[in-house]
Amino acid sequence: MSATTLEPAIQAVGLTRSYGDGRGIFDIDLEVNRGEVVALLGPNGAGKTTLVEILEGLRYYEQGSVRVLGDDPVAAAPLWRSRIGAVLQLGTETDEYTVGEMLRAHARYYPRPRPIAEVVDLLELTALTDQRISTLSGGQRRRVDVALGIIGDPDMLFLDEPTTGLDPGVRRMIWDLVSHLADTGTTVLLTTHYLDEVDHLAQRTIVLVDGGKVWEGPTGDLTGQSSASTVSFRLRPPTTAAELPPGLPAAQIDQDGRISIGTPDSTGVVAALMEWGHQHPNGSPVEELDINRPSLEEAYLTLLEEGGADQ
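Request: output the structure for the sequence above.
Response:
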C-alpha cells in the first residue's frame, strides 16, 4: 500500500450533480476513513451510481468539493488512478481473452501490482486461468471481475454488487477477501442489495433517497432507526394489562394473553417494566420477557418507507 497519511480516504462537502429529469445527488457530505468498509444503500434511482462515478473520477460534479486519497478525482494524475480499484456491476466483456491473459494485461497497468499467483489463489481461479472469458459461467466471471479489481493492490476499492450471481460458498470467500483487504489498509466503498452482506462487512452504512443522504452511522445502529422493535411478555395472574404503569406505548394482547408493545426504545420499555415489577407488592408479575428487534433488512425498508430519518 502506498497510502501513509492519516487524512480521510474520501472527503466530500456539498457534492451536487443534477440531471434534466430532476435526478442526481444534492448537497452530499461524506467522509470515509482509511481502512473502513462503508456500505452505500438506496433504492434504484437514489443517486448511488452518480456518487460513486464522481468518486471514481468518471463523472463531473457541479457544486461542492471532493477529495479521494487526497486528490480531486476529476483533476487527479495517472498515478492516482493506479491507487484505485473498481469492480463494476456489468463486469468485463473481453470474451476473447483467457483469464490468465486478462490478469497479466491488467497487472501491467499498475506500478506495484499484486503477484498474479496470489490473486489467482485468493479468488480460486487456478483451474480457470487457461479458459476464455466467453466459456465461463456468470459466477466465474464475477470472480474474475473481483480479481481484476484488486490486481493493482489498490488503496481504495469500489465494489458495485460484487457477489451478484455467486453461490453461498463463493460469496463467503469474497466476504473474507474484503475483510482481509480492509484489515491490511484498503478502504472499501460497497454498493449492494444484499443486506446480509452489509451486516457482515460494513462498519458504517450510508442511505441515499432521491439524491440526498437520509441516514448515516454504524451499521449496527441502523436497526435502532426502526419503530418495529417489539417487547413482549406475560403477566402472572391476577395482574392484567390494565395495571401496567402509565407512560408505556400502547400494548396489544394476543389470543394467548401475551402482551406486545411496539417501540423505538425497547431498552426504555424494559427498564420501566422492571422498575414497575420491582415495586409490585407481590413481586414482579412480568414473565417470559422477550425483545424482538428488526433485522437490518426490515430496518432499512422501514427507513425507506418513512422517507428517511434525522441523524
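The chain has two domains: 35-56+83-221, 229-293.
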